[in-house]
Batch of 2 targets.
Target 1
Amino acid sequence: MLRLEKRPNPSRFWAIASPIAAVIATMVAGGIMFWVLGKDPLEAIRTIFWDPLFHENFAAYSRPQLLVKAAPLILIAIGLAMGFRAGIWNIGAEGQYIMGAVIGGGVGLAFYPLDAWWIFPLMVVCGGLGGAMWAMIPAILKARFNTNEILVSLLLVYVAENILAAMALGPLRNPDGQGFPGSRNFGDFPAAHNDFLIPAAGVHWGVVFAILAVVVAWGVMRFHVYGFRVRLLGESPRAAKFAGVSPGRMIVLSFLISGGLAGFAGLFEVTGPGGQITESFNSGYGFTAIIVAFLGRLTPIGILLGGLLLGLTYIGGELAQLMLGLPGAAIQAFQGMLLFFLLAADVLTNYRVRVRG
Amino acid sequence: MGAVLGETLLELTGLTKAYPGVVANDDVSFDIGRGEIHALLGENGAGKSTLVKMIYGLVRPDAGQMVLNGAAFAPAEPRAARAAGVAMVFQHFSLFDALSVAENIAVGMEHPPKPRDLAARITDVSNAYGLPLDPGRLVGDLSAGERQRVEIIRCLLQDPKLLIMDEPTSVLTPGEVDTLFATLRKLRSEGTSILYISHKLEEIRALCETATILRGGKKVATCDPREQSARDLAEMMVGSALKPAQAQPGDLGDVVLAVNALSLPPQSAFGTALKDVSFAVHAGEVLGIGGVAGNGQDELLACLSGEVTTPLGTMTMDGMDFSTMSPNTRRGLGVLAAPEERLGHAAAPDMSLTENALLSGMVREGLQQRGVLNWGKARSFAEAIIAKFDVRTPGPNSAARSLSGGNLQKFVIGREILQSPRVLVVNQPTWGVDAAAAAAIRQALLDLAAGGAAVVVISQDLDELREVATRFGALNGGRLSAVRDMAGLSIDDIGLMLGGADAAA
């Protein structure tokens, strides 16, 4: 009989080995699924994990896409993870991402066609504020009235989607767009355009912010009082209270950070790779970032790697749909397996398996 | 049963159990007689819990045999032990506050009878053994002593041959202790054997006819405790001469801590309200606050530590009002506290000792500058606590939960004492700590007071309070009795104060 026994101290070996084991298990189980679907499993795995980066024909296009896809995921996940570590559950990053794009983008469009250097920085600031403001609604309700932040933040996503639709069809609609929905294209408005800084690598301002967020979050979690308080509150709320941590203040700060980062991500996406504010520019990054946060074990470095890995499965998944005719649902199932195996392997960090006769 | 019933109920031979790095039980052998109250004595880490867990089927011995009633006994799980007639009352109760007494008992049964029959049986058994208990009451409304009755009756309904009790009196008032002892003696007279674990040597001498003493996992002696002095027993446990803590009656300084008409509504459904609590503690004085668990101790500590803030004017230190200050502002002033619950309140279980040193030491030890943590300094502080208070642990990187209860307690109390507080409030400072370590902690509290600090010791252990406190007050239902000099109080006076019958001093 197998039995789980709690380790007195968490295992350092498994903290690093469990994500690797999870990726391998995903490849095996995913391979079986692809084989059942009548595809060559090795070819499918290679198409997802290898071809986007090294295929002679596709790599030139798909390699920069890796950072383009991963950057918003990482930026959002970093903010979310700092809340999750404290037991504060912001599930509505998608809404904050949308509001960052709408408000930051809207401020930029208000100055069209002015050509001034400060327009883009102003948009970035407003994007962050937009996301943070949207996040304040669940935060203040939670801190003041102890409402459930999971529910409120999640439901506000749908409110944000309706605001986005109203904006894309109403005030922000391109006046020169022959009545088509969607805003002006930011590519045609240089002062507000988040252009590639290094086109061959896919680096735009969002990537710079994502890397910066990883570094700053790493430092804060390790060396700053705030990071200590976040961990303390998550590990043991009563001990945190004894240590003088104010839960209300932590809730507000945590939502401020995660909402702000999601807002930044939305602004960079809509002014760069997305190109314009449309009804459906948000492709679920705010939700996928939750997976990235857990894939990265809620640590900044882990999120960096997790974001890149998930970004890779996105691009590789698209490639596999195109090349091998794999159904999109199979790709999603494959990504789901990744999270499933990671959480399962996670158990090994805190528990050891004992065989008992 | 088959063969002739012998005098011996349970025979333990050569029981050995090793964990990585430590031999918890090393070749332990002794017999428990039928109808005998057998004491199991030992310091923390002496191996008492492991031994009891082997008997109760929670742990499997690496070597050795047990013979129960003449038949080999090797329970694979508690259910098997219970089926063989072994029952256990744990130190920590496993009861649901929101369920009634009868429901709680039914939850733990394999084949619970119909609710009405069960209630009748509970009433019968509780009256037969002098432990009156209403099966319909909510456990959340019961006192600690009554909760213990629920656990005992749960065991008695199984009609056990051997009843194991782990530190049963730690939560009881003197009156309740007498009731419990009467029950245990009645059980003995009916032929039930009792294995009785306790630190309180006087109790053991009053109750038990045999005592087995463990030290470092090995059996030191089996003796008749009535023929030994408490001091001899303690020295057998520790293996060296004991130096009890001594309260130094010195001149009292000015009032340092003053609590003034403090009232607090209950903080949760089963919380206790504080009602008009007032007291003053002078420099150099230890105020002992007694009372049975759940009479407002946690709430009082929360008010003093700053976890709960109270209206202006309710609490002052050296005349400065700190009622509305946050815990860390209070720490800056020198008001420190150590709550009762070690894991999850005084310390974060999954965090290292270094991180736990940071938890309350950040302000006074200067472990951060402008928000940046000084890990090196935090580590040194943790190491200082470990060294000064003899915390047995591989090092400051160990998680708090990997420490035994007594060792973590030493760490938690040491952490506050080493910050040289002006006011220190501790709740149950030596709960679950062995005799030698408890004496060390009490001495450290007395030394702190001798250095001019005002110390408040909240405790359910009256022996402890008599040892350290210069003055004494009792909490009952959230009210504090008049505070009186410890020296002039008899055990009966204290019993009355604990019961809320407060004869004006």
Note: The first strand of chain A starts at residue 2 and ends at 6.
Target 2
Amino acid sequence: MHQALVDLWYGFGIAVEPHNLMWSFVGVLVGNLIGVLPGMGSLSAISILLPLTYTMHAVPAFLMLAGIFYGAMYGGAIGAILLNLPSHPPHAVTCLDGYPMTRQGRGGVALGITMIASFFAASFGITVMVFASPLLVKAALAFGPAEIFSIMLLGLVAGGTMARGSPLKGVAMTIVGLLVGAVGTDVNSGVIRFSFGLPELSDRIDLVALALGLFGVADFLRSVNRLKFIGTETRLRLRDMRPSMAELKQAFPPMLRGTLVGTVFGAMPGTGPTITSFIAYALERRISRSPQRFGRGALEGVAAPEAASHSKTQVDFIPTMSLGIPGDAVMALLLGALMIQGIAPGPQLITEHADLFWGLIASFWIGNVLLVILNVPLIGVWLKVLRVPYRLMFPCAMFFIAVGVYSTNNSLFEVGEVLVFGIAGAIFMALDFALAPILLGYVLGPLAEENFRRALLLSRGDLGVFFERPISLAFMLLCIALVVLQMLFAVSAAIGKRNDGASP
Amino acid sequence: MNTMVHPKRVVAFAVVSLVGLAAALPVRAESYPDHPITIAVPFTAGGTTDLITRALTDAMGAAMHASFVVVNWTGAAGAVGTARVAKARPDGYTVGMLPVGPLTSQPYIQHLSYSPESFKYVCLVYSDPQALVVRKNSPFETVKQVVDYAREHPGKLTFATTGAGTIPHLGMVEFAADAGINLVHVPYQGEANILTNLLGGFVDSMVAHPAFVESNPDSLRAIAVMAPKRMPEYPNLPTFAEAGYPVNATVWGGLAVPKDTPEPVVEKLESACRTATSSGSYVARLKNQRMPQAYMGSKEFTAFVLSQYQQTGKLLKSAGMLK
Amino acid sequence: MHWLVNERRRDYAGGVLMIALGLGAALQGAAYSIGSLRAMGPGFFPTALGILLALIGLAIASAARFARDGDEPVEAKAPEWRGWICLTLAIVAFAVLGTYGGLVPATFAIAFISALGDRDNRPLDAAMLAAGCVVIAVAVFHWGLALQFPLFQWGGR
């Protein structure tokens, strides 16, 4: 404990060295600006800018990349909340309530809460990372295939019914998402599924293309010629943009819960921030006394998933740095950046390159402070985007989406995917289907399938494996309880409806 | 909205148009290269193949007084970028850094527009044999112990790889067939997930390159490497061949051009590649990044690719994975 | 699509669509090997999911007759064919021109054609907007971010 504090102090010393601080700031600023562009997530920001760091020294290079990373993440929230464009997939969840808030003229409040939630969660995540990382790594080892499958199943069951509207339709969309997730090469057999002869489809459908198609293009197709402005027509005063004390109080418990969800998932490799934010949202809606507000601009629906994805992201650095294994594609890129510098990731990194490791941790916190300082005045600027008439806004957004999706993999095929999912999404919306569960199914599906098959492979086909191991059993019981509750609600609602009809 | 109008834009248009025109002119081998050469990597920036390519192009640029542009054409486990290289204009200005998977495995697994015969091979630049890896406290010390245990307990011993049909998987298929044992293959998506499950005790072993063990020395141990002879970097690591199972599972890659590229152009690239891979700064840079190094010239590389292609076909067939 | 203003009809159509998607997925999934519980084949999950989706579609369609008419705010608007056609063409144009023309023509096309999808935009407005996007494409993406996308190219790659 004492040693951690000494090391951290040393790290702060490194991070506030003027040239290091400068690169950190450059990273945060550039990341923030790129992240705001629709379609440009942290993945594309880092993959585009990575070659620039090849000639830099290790510490400033890495501080800058980390700055770009969380700058872009925060910038992505701005596009998600104001324009319904989730360029960083975890923000698809933020869209669900953030965009309705914008439509009601509360976009500034949503941005403010996002900023506070991400700062709080990141600070918490960093603290955990400094003091409890060995514990979390150990805990993560207890999760085998059966446990991961049970958690994924819980996420699917809880998340499938989370969107507004009919639960049955929510489940249907979750399954559609699971099927979309099955496109591509099956890890277990190497067989390519649902590719229809196109080699591009032998990798999975691109997550960014899917999210921007379903949320961006589908929404344009529904709104073109019908919408003049995105926000309300009333002019906003600066005072209205800041969350009030009451709103802060309302947002705090969800923020805390979201942070904890993110921390728990943080050390588990293979579970990305998207899954984490979905689960935080589903949890928040489950325990809310008024779940019907969700999807219509509930503040909790913004605070919890944002906190979850930020704390998850910070804690994610534990497996990345200490085991030398990346939790997701962005982490893999950051590891690549380390290796370019001739630094081999792994447990010895912390001792061999203490300046880098502790400087990085300190810079996380400094970077998050910089983000807050940068964005308090910028919120007003971002809100001005809403004054651009819709007829000019959406063609620009179309361009940004196309270039952004292209930039992730330099693939025009994926731009075509955006169109397909845009049209499919618009048709589903016209038929009263909510779209978020598709994304949930897509993200969780492959993990659920892989781990299900892996668990049965290891148990020699014995389904009991999901109920014999205590952690798995607990999650399985929760799933069953949720399904039973959902059915009871449905039956009682149906009875209530019939009674209403009988005695008008 | 931030709209900067820059006078330099006009100049850039003119320059870009000129470069475009130059590309349309017929190839003259004597003047090759007179404009930047594009090196296509079929995987994303920051991965092993990309890092080696960037080190290589820096060194080759110095050797042949040319500039190189590295592009990442990703998709379909490398098959998309490889297909684009095969279809590129055969003028030496599009060169692929093509790894083993898209060259010798994917043509068997997917329906593709290219085969290993679609290229002329310039030089092989890296080669990374795979090893059987266990937990540090695992009872298995030698290949013989593994075989003996597996003979007594058929279908019990598990090994994890990064997917069916990958080089690590095929290596183990070959080993199991040679030794006449029955092992359970547990495929994963990425080494991250394997490592947690290996350390958590859910699987018994994994296949990875020895550097992976080196970066986790407290928790992992390599049993033997699937290479014809011991690796100079790891002299204490025995081979499978020493135990009597001459298994070879190596991840490799090198430069290749479309097959109609003129011979003098290939020779120029080959000689630059030879100079580059033996230059001190290149060797030091890759060593520093713990990247595997190797070299084969055009002739040797071509024969190697074709023999690997045959061998992979046989293994994929015995694994039941032909398309 | 005009008749979709009625919630019951929307549910019928939605249910039928899900049945069609589910059966399609199940049929295609069954073409891959199903395997056993111990060694599950690649067809197991898609087939099971497809059947489940079709069943849920059936439930949605049959529950439709309980749905009440017209007490929800409904959308009584004709579909926006002009918008749909323009946005679709815009993305197709971006992909095609991106392959055969380069970043500049592709950018101009996507912004210009999508802008024409809005009745309030005159062609001149659309062209100016598209020109603005081209400037951003060149300044921010090409110069600023060094995006791997040539500004101009002829005859594909």
Note: Chain A touches chain B through 58 residues (CB under 8 Å).
